[in-house]
Structure formats: structure tokens, C-alpha cells
């Protein structure tokens, strides 16, 4: 596994070694001992899987209590994946980074607890899987507006149109009004 770190402390892009031939491929997507040594000494307790159509934007989500670290990969299709640092004590507080994750590039993104997360679907359909370090607790879930001007995410919107959003995401709050971490 190759590990690439970002300017935002704690966020890591992982590139697995892929063994392929005419039959297909094999890759190791996660290994506890190596992850603990290279990325974070943390346990995963929940796996999630979603499917979304082109133009869907999910996020920017986080849990203000029971914050979730997420190990993210796209199984098929392609997304633009974004994380926003919500740790007030961090030198990168309020900053974002984004990467294209796809079934083709097979990259995996580690998002530590203390971040808002979202993704935008670039392909016709995308299957998205992620491991979490804490359970989903809806009463603590929060959403920041995807197009918040203070954050300034440069989403690669399909044909410049508005994304498909859930009602929950349309009702997100501005970054300046969001609950954040210490």
C-alpha cells in the first residue's frame, strides 16, 4: 500500500497494490496491523454501502458527538470526494481537500474523526463503500451547506447544473453557524 498525506493533518490517500491478469484482479483494501502502523491506531465498527446516480451530492455530513472516522472507497463509478476540517484547534480548520475516487483508480481515502464529508457523483452510477469508527447516531448528525461560500469548495458539477440533494442536505447550515470540534 502506498500512503499519500495531504496538507490537512490526518487525511491520507491509500493506493493498494493491484494484482491483475486476463481473469480480473485482486487487491487488499485494508489490513488492521498495517493501517494502525501507517495511518491511525483506531478500530472500525460499522460498514456502509450506497449507490447514487450521476449528479447526486451527499454531504457535507458529520456527527458532533460520536464523530466517525471513515475509510472510503468507490467500488464502481467515479465520485469527487471532499473533506472539511472542523477541528477548531487544527492549523487547517475550515480548509477542504477533494480527490476523485473511482472503481478504476481503486484509491482509498482515510478521513479522521472531526471532519465533514461529502461526495459528488461524476459517473452514471457510483457504488460507494466506507468503514466507520463509530456508529451512526442520527441525533448527532449535522450537515453544512455543500455550496458554503466561506469554505469555497470547487465542485466539478456536471454541465454546471445544480446537484441532486436530499431534503436534509438542502437544509444544512452555513459553516459560520456550524457546530465544530475543539
Question: Explain this structure to me?
Answer:
This protein is mainly β. The chain has a single domain, classed as Jelly Rolls (Sandwich), CATH 2.60.120.10. 6% of the residues lie in helices and 41% in strands. The chain has two helices and 13 strands; from the N terminus they run ββββαβββββββββα. It has helices spanning 32-38, 167-170; strands at residues 2-5, 12-15, 18-21, 24-27, 46-53, 57-63, 70-76, 78-85, 96-102, 108-111, 115-121, 125-132, 141-143. It has a six-stranded antiparallel β-sheet, with no helix packed on it. It has a five-stranded antiparallel β-sheet with strand order 9-8-11-6-13, with no helix packed on it. Strand 3 and strand 4 (24-27) form a beta hairpin. The longest helix is centred in the N-terminal third of the chain and has 7 residues, at 32-38. The chain is globular. The two termini are 32 Å apart. The mean pLDDT is 96.
Amino acid at each position: 500500500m502506498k500512503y499519500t498525506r495531504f496538507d490537512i493533518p490526518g487525511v491520507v490517500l491509500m493506493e493498494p497494490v493491484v494484482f491483475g491478469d486476463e481473469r480480473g484482479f485482486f487487491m487488499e483494501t485494508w489490513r488492521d496491523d498495517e493501517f494502525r502502523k501507517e495511518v491511525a491506531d483506531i478500530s472500525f465498527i460499522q460498514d456502509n454501502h450506497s449507490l447514487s446516480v450521476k449528479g447526486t451530492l451527499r454531504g457535507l455530513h458529520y456527527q458532533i458527538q460520536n464523530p466517525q472516522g471513515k475509510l472510503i472507497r468507490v467500488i464502481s463509478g467515479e465520485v469527487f470526494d471532499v473533506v472539511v476540517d472542523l477541528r477548531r484547534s487544527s492549523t487547517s480548520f475550515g480548509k477542504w481537500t477533494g480527490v476523485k475516487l473511482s472503481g478504476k483508480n481503486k484509491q482509498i481515502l482515510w478521513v479522521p474523526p472531526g471532519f465533514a464529508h461529502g461526495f459528488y457523483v461524476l459517473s452514471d452510477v457510483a457504488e460507494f463503500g466506507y468503514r466507520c469508527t463509530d456508529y451512526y447516531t442520527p441525533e448527532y448528525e449535522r450537515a453544512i451547506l455543500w455550496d458554503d461560500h466561506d469554505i469555497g469548495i470547487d465542485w466539478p458539477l456536471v454541465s454546471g447544473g445544480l446537484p441532486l440533494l436530499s431534503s436534509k442536505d438542502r437544509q444544512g447550515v452555513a459553516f459560520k453557524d456550524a457546530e465544530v470540534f475543539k
